[in-house]
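Give me the fold.
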Amino acid sequence: MTDNVVPLFKDPSTSTDTVTAASPTPAPAAVGPVRPVRVWKRTASGVRTAVTSERTRTAARLVARHGMYVIGGTRITAKRTWDGRTGSRYERMIRAAEAAGNWEEAKEWEDRLQRFRSGRHHRRMDLLRSAPDLAKSAAVGTGLTVGGLLLLGIVLAIANKDISWLFAPISAVIETIRTIVVVATVVWGPALTIGPWLALLALWGVGRRQQTAPQWTLPAQQRDDAGAPITPSIVVTALRDLGIAPLRGAIKDMGDAGAAMLGPIRIAGCGVEVDVTLPSGVSTAEVQGRRRKLAENLARHEHEVFITLPAAARTVRLWIADSGALDQPIGPSPLVTDETMTANYKTGRAPWGQDLRGDAATLSLYQRHLLITGLSNQGKTAALRALALWLALDKTVEFRIADLKGVGDWAMFDGLATTLIQGPTDDHVIAATEMVEGMVTEMERRIQAPPGTVFTPLVGIVDEAQVAFMCPAVGPDKRPYGGSKATSRYFMAVRKIHNQGRAVDVILEEGTQDPTDQNLPKLVREGAHTRISLALGTESQARMALGDKAVDGGAAPHLLRQGLDKGTVVVASDGIAIPAGQASITVRTHYIDTDTAALIAERAKALRAGVTTTAHTVDHGPALDPLADILTVLGTEPRVLTQDVLKRLTALNAKAYGGWSFIDLKRVLDGTPAAPYKSDGRMVIGRERVARILANRPETGSASAAE
């Protein structure tokens, strides 16, 4: 029954009592919440697209930029008006002078402020007293004007013989005033409409000239100012935006927008240099710690901005390279271009490269131990070899060279050096150690020579010295060759040369990679007079290479670009000209390739006329047998104090036993019946015990070994 029910509706075209049947229609499908959700998604997607589109962002930047021009122009105009009417400008300059510690200038501005206030007071008092005078002047002026016009009317009436001309001048003046009022009435309405817009345009112009809009509102082409010339406003803006609140506040309070902080901007090589005197409350360390941000604010890369500390207090010196200039190579070395060049170890300076100002950088090697370090493949060997090639042009210099890399980088010194060791093995380290110990022996001989004796320079070079420090080999006397302790033969030989070598012109130059406390002991690196670093990985390595003073003063080899700044070194030495107040200097060294280095070496060999014969190994001397030598120095005495045994061993063979201590003696005798023992409370060695060991020792078990 329910299926046959027909829906009814009332037809408005018929009477209210008539009811007709409607045509059956299908029931609408249930829509549910799906359609509204889709609508909302499409709406949100459209809004998001509209908001995030480049056109919308460009329009937003346009509106924000010009709005900020108006706001900034209003602020600047109001500030100028306020400064002109009050003493705030003088007070601001006083605060800036006090912040800079310039008390004389502060006093001068205070005097100007007092004069300004006194003059303003007098003007106001004169204005108060001028009211009666103004009224009297107005009455007199009006009377004279009317009288003058009447006199003119009388003249005109007489001339025209018409009495009506008597008031003609006054009528003309009244008509002129009426015309002016009419014109003003007509113009006043449009002026009221246009005036605010003109004022707004003027404020916009002020803001635009002063660039009061934030950087993010500028269009892309205006914000891309990489490589732009460095101007005072650019430097001050870069410092203001470093994120140092006291610095930003001080610049804002300065009447000259911070220009008083800057010294003159000077052209310095492939860039410019400027000294910045920081306001009170801002430390130089804060600026140094934001080098990357400062470089970006100056539209430069980090490696194109160097921050050093000159002698003046609270001052940083900025060197800002021309964009891309540091990526251009420097010219060839004078060693290559001048085939007649010679060297003088004592008075000369090696032509090594250029500083960042573009000036020639020359280095004195006279009586200065040298250490050069850096990451692998950064040009360390080439930089060190360039100095040695210059020294080779002084025929009085003797070289003893150990190349513990052994790939031929120093092969051209075959025939120049009296000793040339090339190779990375333990045997090569042993030979290098004995070479340095031989330099110690020569140094001690020179020290004991009669006063006034003149010696020729002896220069030892150990490249890849970290291989020597890390060598695990142990000698027949049970002393290790490597290591950083007093038992290390290489370490102790280097220390002895560092301590006394320069006085008799025995100089040691070392090159090492990736410095750590293990492969470059502290006492060794601090014993070098000239410390040089190429690119390093961390600031702690930079401190190892150059020392805390240089790094605290702005030296930053860890900020050099690995691979891109090959041959660029940071030098801390009194042997090179360093600007006053700085602890280091950055040098871009000349690169001399291996083939060219061989040609320079041939010139050096020609100066020496082939008199140098190079040994590729070190003469070990007679066989060393510590037990037999101990028995020898004991003589016929039944027992001898250990310190006396050490003295007698040194007298017997200073080269072998000069560095021995009780620990070395104990190491040789430990585990045998001849070990030191106490007699009457003092350590002694018994002759009979040592002789018994030697008598019972088989021939094949001899402790003899080449020294």
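The two ends are 126 Å apart (CA to CA).
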